Amino acid sequence: MPDSVSPSATLIVATHNTHKTGEFAAMLEGFGFETILDLTAFPDLGAPEENGDTFGANAAIKALAASGAMPEALVLADDSGIEVDALCGRPGVRSARFAGENATDADNRARLLAELADVGARGKERSARFRCALAVARDGEVIASFDGAVEGVVINEEKGEGGFGYDSLFVPDGHCETFAQLPAEVKQTLSHRARAVEQLKAWLRKTR
């Protein structure tokens, strides 16, 4: 494990999801990264098979795959998704592929609504949580990992134009609006990703 993380280092976010990269960049502003890139900058780097049975395992798979191709870079990978109690925790690690391997976010939301069609409009029976696992790698080794979660409910229709993934269907506890309706600065204080990133920030402070 390296003794320190250079404050001027380039951070590689192991995702092709530019929305997710933007969230990380906003939350890590002021931490000294001169450049934050994602895998759209490396078109020749193929995506690894995400065959882990936990979010943490898949985050590690993605971090190691990118780190192996860029051994000196600091690589951050996440795996996140939604767990719905009425569906026994599904989609879980299959959140990005809930409606099939090539599913769009809209496809996945439509399938979730269809599977919950016979469940009450809102309440305990629609309880759910977003989970996020982060893995940090360098030189082909996972050097840190973190996780976060936020509880809430899945509503029975999409609301809001912001966010991505299942954001327009998820209302976090203590709020009346979905993640897609809440201002970005509010979401960045309470989301599953934000809670995991707070742990990442604490680690970065200690390792500099």
Question: Counting H and I runs of at least 4 residues, what is the number of helices?
Answer: 5
Main β-sheet, spatial strand arrangement: 2-1-3-4-5-6
Unreliable stretches covering 5 or more consecutive residues: 1-8
Strand count, sense and barrel status of the largest sheet are:
6 strands, mixed
Query: Would you tell me the structural class of the helices and strands?
Result: alpha/beta
User: What integer value in Å does the Rg equal?
Assistant: 17 Å
Assess the beta-strand content as a share of residues: 15-25%
- What distance lies between the first and last C-alpha atoms, to the nearest angstrom? 13 Å
- Gross morphology: globular
CATH topology: Maf protein
If you average the pLDDT, what whole number results?
A: 89
Secondary-structure element order, N to C: EHEHEHEEEHH
Description:
Helix 1 links the parallel strand 1 and strand 2. The chain is globular. The protein is α/β, with parallel strands linked by helices. It has five helices and six strands. Strands 2-1-3-4-5-6 form a six-stranded mixed sheet, sandwiched between helices. The chain has a single domain, classed as Alpha-Beta Complex (Maf protein), CATH 3.90.950. 28% of the residues lie in helices and 23% in strands. Helix 4 packs across helix 5.
